[in-house]
From TrEMBL:
Keywords: Isomerase, Metal-binding, Zinc
Record's protein name: mannose-6-phosphate isomerase
Species this protein is from: Emiliania huxleyi (Coccolithophore)
GO cellular component, as recorded: cytosol
Residues at which Zn(2+) binds: Q88, H90, E115, H259
Leading EC class: isomerase
The Phosphomannose isomerase type I catalytic domain, residue ranges: 4-58, 69-131
Family, similarity comment: Belongs to the mannose-6-phosphate isomerase type 1 family.
Catalytic reactions of this protein: D-mannose 6-phosphate = D-fructose 6-phosphate
Residue positions of the active site: R278
InterPro entries xrefs: Man6P_Isoase-1, Mannose-6-P_Isomerase, Pmannose_isomerase-type1_CS, PMI_typeI_cat, PMI_typeI_hel, RmlC-like_jellyroll, RmlC_Cupin_sf
Pathway: Nucleotide-sugar biosynthesis; GDP-alpha-D-mannose biosynthesis; alpha-D-mannose 1-phosphate from D-fructose 6-phosphate: step 1/2
Pfam families to which the protein is assigned, alphabetical: PMI_typeI_cat (PF20511), PMI_typeI_hel (PF20512)
Recorded GO MF terms: mannose-6-phosphate isomerase activity; zinc ion binding
């Protein structure tokens, strides 16, 4: 008995998405008879049962089946990012329930949203705080940022180099810098909101050769005088490489970790939620105080998930949460990959090429 059913999936047309045929989301959505428009941003393809964008099972007669009360524990997405997404984090279950109860117009559900990102094209992101020493050094090297947050906020604590008590030293130092930045008066940000603008021309040309500074210049062009631009100095800058002939590592983002996607196409899997707490690089609702209070302020390295090669030839990405895992198959011409059986509902998406299932 055939247990494979085609889905008609929701396309989210957020303004940060890639336009028309440049969008991987649009290329996949064409299989659902979506008429492409070159001026429309196709940002996200949602595969799952979240009420903000549920997928429909296509029956043999061409009609869409729906109305089931069964909910998937995960939400599977394709993202095509043209301009930077907001500086954001996702709440844990306790905070999600509180936000949903108090602000249901902004937080549509009461679930947490841990997520894993796998690059399809080179994918740029900011995520988690850099080491505290790097953060403070970066801040002091940027006069514009010092002018926004104040010199005392970027002064290294006396015990920074000797104390092993993260909660007593690192967390307060990072929280002070980030909170001062995100709550700065808009007039001050507008006055000083062009990082590097006061530097000499030759120095500036040298700096912009660095990938991080190139990203900063691009973000500033997209969101001039936005406080979120300065987060390039605070968060880790990553470029996730897609898997081709080697195993590509995924990025996992747990609750309360700051991040912002900058450019590229990716696959994303998460617990079934759409809760996002934002504080910069967005025209959407900003919940600055909540974001500043909820973060872990951990300056450890980003949580990278290497894939495991499993029987049948697929790569498996195992997230440290029970709601989901992701298998990835790279099939050579004339070849085959065996996807392991799943005890629950699985979703398969083809992002490139053609084949038979």
């Amino acid at each position: 008995q055939n247990r494979l059913f085609p889905l008609r999936c929701t396309v989210q047309k957020y303004m940060w998405g890639k336009f028309g045929c440049d969008s991987l989301v649009a290329a996949i959505a064409k299989n659902n008879d979506t008429d492409l428009t070159v001026t429309v941003p196709y940002a996200e393809l949602w595969m799952g049962t979240h009420p903000s964008g549920p997928s429909m099972v296509m029956l043999q007669n061409g009609d869409g089946g729906g109305g089931s009360s069964t909910r998937l524990p995960f939400l599977f997405k394709v993202l095509s990012v043209r301009t930077a997404l907001s500086i954001q984090a996702h709440p844990n279950k306790t905070l999600a329930a509180k936000l949903h109860r108090e602000k249901p117009q902004h937080y549509k559900d009461d679930n947490h949203k841990p997520e894993m990102t796998i690059a399809v094209t080179p994918f740029e992101a900011l995520c988690s705080f850099q080491k505290i020493n790097s953060v403070l050094e970066n801040c002091r090297a940027c006069p514009e940022l010092v002018a926004v947050v104040g010199r005392e906020a970027v002064a290294a604590p006396a015990a920074l180099h000797t104390s092993r008590l993260r909660e007593a030293v690192v967390v307060p130092a990072l929280k002070r810098v980030f909170t001062r930045l995100m709550t700065a008066e808009q007039a001050r940000v507008h006055e000083h909101g062009c990082p590097g603008g006061g530097r000499g021309g030759r120095e500036r040309r040298l700096i912009t050769r660095r990938a991080r500074e190139q990203a900063l210049a691009r973000i500033h062009e997209q969101y001039p005088h936005d406080v979120g631009v300065f987060c390039v100095y605070l968060l880790n800058y990553l470029v996730l490489e897609p898997s081709r002939n080697c195993l590509g590592t995924a990025l996992f983002l747990n609750a309360n970790e700051p991040h912002a996607y900058l450019f590229g196409d990716c696959i994303e899997c998460m617990a079934e939620s759409d809760n996002v707490v934002r504080a910069g690089l967005t025209p959407k609702f900003k919940d600055v105080d909540v974001l500043c209070e909820m973060l872990t302020y951990d300056d450890g390295p980003p949580y990278m998930v290497p894939p495991l090669l499993i029987d049948g030839g697929a790569e498996r990405y195992i997230a440290p949460v029970p709601e989901f895992l992701v298998d990835r198959a790279m099939v050579e011409a004339g070849g085959a990959v065996l996807l392991p059986a799943s005890p629950f509902v699985s979703i398969v998406v083809v992002v490139e090429g053609r084949g038979e299932l």
